[in-house]
Amino acid sequence: MKVTVVGAGNVGATVANVLATKKFCSEVVLVDIKEGVPQGKAMDIMQTAHMLNFDTTVTGVTALPNDPEGYAPTAGSDVVVVTSGMPRKPGMSREDLIGVNAKIVKSVVDQALKYSPNAYFIIISNPMDAMTFLTLKDTKLPRNRILGQGGMLDSSRFRYFLAQALTKAGYPATPADVDGMVIGGHSDKTMVPLVSYATLRGIPVTQLLSKEALDDVVANTKVGGATLTKLLGTSAWIAPGAAAATMVEAIALDAKKLIPCCVYLEGEYGEKDLCIGVPCILGKNGLEKIVEIKLDGEEKAKFEESVQAARNTNAKLGDALK
Ligand SMILES: NC(=O)C1=CN([C@@H]2O[C@H](COP(=O)(O)OP(=O)(O)OC[C@H]3O[C@@H](n4cnc5c(N)ncnc54)[C@H](O)[C@@H]3O)[C@@H](O)[C@H]2O)C=CC1
Ligand SMILES: O=C([O-])CC(=O)C(=O)O
């Protein structure tokens, strides 16, 4: 399995690093417009190979947007992970990045596709739901090959906050003890943590936590990315990188894993012509199935709000969609 990771910044380098340590890739190519940075990060990762016992070859490449051959070293990639673009600063929303990142995402996807016509694309750059929609419309690829990463990360944050709340309430738990999923847009205001389905080792958390505690968990999950951005001065990268690598792994190993991903809806959940987070089965064909689950009244209303917000953001793509 050959994977290209576009953007050798915080998230991209972490994706490459986690992929190498997971040991299922033969080759990972890190691409950036910067000279030296992708090469340096690849070399740094390779210098852990002996200690971490992996055989993956990680290389770094500089490719400028106007270089028709810049992506030649990425040729034949099975999966392309797109992390190139600006991260937000404290006080910004992900949606504020749309103007600058739409141009970057469109250009790198076109360049990568030329050399890897059969690749699956995993979109990370924000605002991710809109960038996934843009990629789908721009490439005209079938929807099973275009996946946005948001739900894997948001669900992981949901589990973290649930574990903290459960521990505080007298039910000691780690995030690994908890199951929970977040659907909807990858957005501070409109993601939808599915409280009604969350469990501690099979026990509904609604039986263990007060409404107030659950409301706090939901609020913390929704602003999980903004909280880290405030603490770090730029957005997070460790869990985001691991989330993307986990999606690549599900495809590479044909794992048929149920992972919430941002995908193009064609009538599922009563919606069409947008990309948004829903439970998906990921395997060797990328998106293999969208799993439609029953949402309770409040969750359904929140999902619909999230859909509307995603449509409003897509409308701002304007000329990029042409
Ligand atoms: N979907 C998600 O869950 C998450 C999304 N993100 C998003 O991922 C993106 C990257 O974040 P970071 O890695 O923290 O930013 P970063 O600034 O550390 O890295 C971005 C890299 O992209 C490169 N780049 C810019 N234009 C390029 C082009 N045309 N071709 C190749 N490389 C190019 C830059 O030179 C830079 O090295 C941001 O848009 C951020 O908002 C970040 C975390 C989670
Ligand atoms: O918060 C951000 O801007 C980056 C991101 O999407 C996340 O960490 O969830």
Characterise the protein shown here:
The active site is at 186 (proton acceptor). This protein has 322 residues and is an alpha/beta fold. Helix content is 40%, strand content 21%. The protein has helices spanning 10-22, 37-46, 49-52, 98-115, 128-139, 151-168, 211-222, 224-232, 238-252, 297-315, and strands at residues 2-6, 27-32, 57-62, 79-82, 120-123, 146-148, 178-179, 182-184, 191-193, 199-200, 203-204, 257-266, 272-283, 286-290. A hairpin with a 2-residue loop joins strand 13 (272-283) and strand 14 (286-290). The relative contact order is 0.14. The structure holds 1,4-dihydronicotinamide adenine dinucleotide and oxaloacetate ion. Residues 6-12, 31-34, 65, 83-88, 97, 101, 104, 107-108, 124-126, 128, 149-150, 153, 186, 234-237, 240 line the site of 1,4-dihydronicotinamide adenine dinucleotide. 1,4-dihydronicotinamide adenine dinucleotide is lined by residues 6-12, 31-34, 65, 83-88, 97, 101, 104, 107-108, 124-126, 128, 149-150, 153, 186, 234-237, 240.
